Amino acid sequence: MLSRTAENLYWLARYVERAEYLARTIEATLRVTALPSAYIGKTNEWDSALLTAGVSAGFYQVYDKADEYNVIEYLSFAPENPSSIRNCIESARLNSRSVRTALTSEMWDTINSAWIDLQKVWGKGAKTREELANFLRFVQETSLRFDGSAYRTMLRNDAYWFSRLGFHLERADNTARILDVKYHVLLPEEEHVGGPLDYYQWTSILRSVSALTAYHWVYRETLKPWLIADLLIPNDSLPRSLASCYGNLVRNLDQIGVAYGRQGAAQRHARGIRNRLEHSHMVDIFQHGVHEFIQEFIVDNSRLGEIITKQYLI
Predict the structure, then answer these.
(1) DSSP assignment, residue 35?
(2) I need a surface site. Which of 84, 156, 185, 191 has the fewest CB within 10 A?
(3) How far is CA 52 from CA 10, 127, 171, 178, 247, in A?
(4) Contacts of 130 (CB under 8 A, 6+ apart)
(5) Residue 191 class from Cβ within 10 Å (0-12 exposed, 13-18 middle, 19+ buried)?
(6) Helix/strand/coil (H/E/C) assignment for every residue in 114-156
(7) Which residues lie below 8 Å from residue 278, measured CB to CB, with a gap of 6+?
(8) Tell me: the pLDDT tens digits for 261-275?
(9) Model pLDDT for residues 123-156, shown as the tens digit of each residue
(10) According to the model, what pLDDT value does residue 272 have?
């Protein structure tokens, strides 16, 4: 496979996953901000949404205040935000056009129809809460349709494996960032763990990664920070956990290595991260510091993306 084709497939999957994650983040933030101020305290949940998305610096170059309207506009429709949902879908469509023959008809139809709907239905943004809810649902359904059609219709070859690399790398980064924001930024120092503010923030985080129901199935307890971290970091039964993402990254990189008859730095780096996750215990993570652990993971995850690019995509 040409490196350019592999790159387009890789970034196509990343953009689709990123768009869904942003939609989930906005939806979860809307739920929290709808609560009485007695429950959510003095925190600015919209500022935390920007930090979670990693676009805070760019936002404040355009806007002065992180309120509901500005943040939703910036994360959803702003052309000056490279990671806005609109730009993610447009970039995904551009990448899919470049590799049209490597995609199945179902995958192409999903991305192309989403792009058309984006121009026709959402060309002027969402004006009401109902329109916004429909838009966020449309983004999530697009991602689910694309992922489902890829899983159910693609031949298991290098096109599929490179697509999965982008998908799981982006998903791991998203899960890590929302965990880091919770532990390091969101909870004010005067709030104690287990208070009402803490509870609703954790609920919003689990909703963002579609894991609230999974948490209750696994632990059958009220929300506890150490159990939530245990679910999202080392528990590989949750598809969005860090361990699950890296299990899939290692498998797909190994498949590429076998197909091309050569292992490399990407395989070694991914195995190193997976092994560290497998041998991590929550007691040790909390003692070392969750923020420090997650920051180290984010750096290592970004480094894997750079290695994959150098090894396969250039």
Answers:
(1) S
(2) 156
(3) 22, 24, 13, 5, 24
(4) none
(5) middle
(6) HHHHHHHCCCCCCCCHHHHHHHHHHHHHHHHHHHHHHHHHCCC
(7) 234, 243
(8) 999 999 999 999 999
(9) 888 889 899 999 999 999 999 999 999 999 999 9
(10) 97
- Alpha carbons 266 and 305: distance in angstroms, whole number: 8
CA distance linking residue 232 with residue 182, whole number of Å: 13
Alpha-carbon distance 211 to 311, whole Å? 34
* Measured distance between the N- and C-terminal CA atoms of the chain, rounded to whole angstroms: 12
Inter-residue contact 126 to 135 (CB < 8 Å): yes
Give the separation between CA 25 and CA 183, rounded to whole angstroms: 16
Paired tokens of 205: 């985080």
Whole-angstrom distance, CA of residue 193 vs CA of residue 187? 9
Residue 264 burial (10 A CB sphere; 0-12, 13-18, 19+): middle
Measured in residues, the chain has a length of 314
| Contact by Cβ (8 Å): 116, 90 | no
Q: If DSSP codes are grouped into helix, strand and coil, which group holds residue 280?
A: coil
CA count, 13 A, side-chain hemisphere, 32? 31
Chain segment 35-51, per-residue pLDDT in tens: 766 555 566 789 989 98
CA angle centred on 220, ends 40 and 224, rounded to 5° = 40
DSSP string, 196-249: HHHHHHHHHHHHHTT-HHHHHHHH-SS--HHHHHHHHTT-TTSTTSHHHHHHHH
Amino acid at 34: A
For the chain, the structural domain boundaries read 3-313
Placement of tokens 């290595």 in the chain:
257
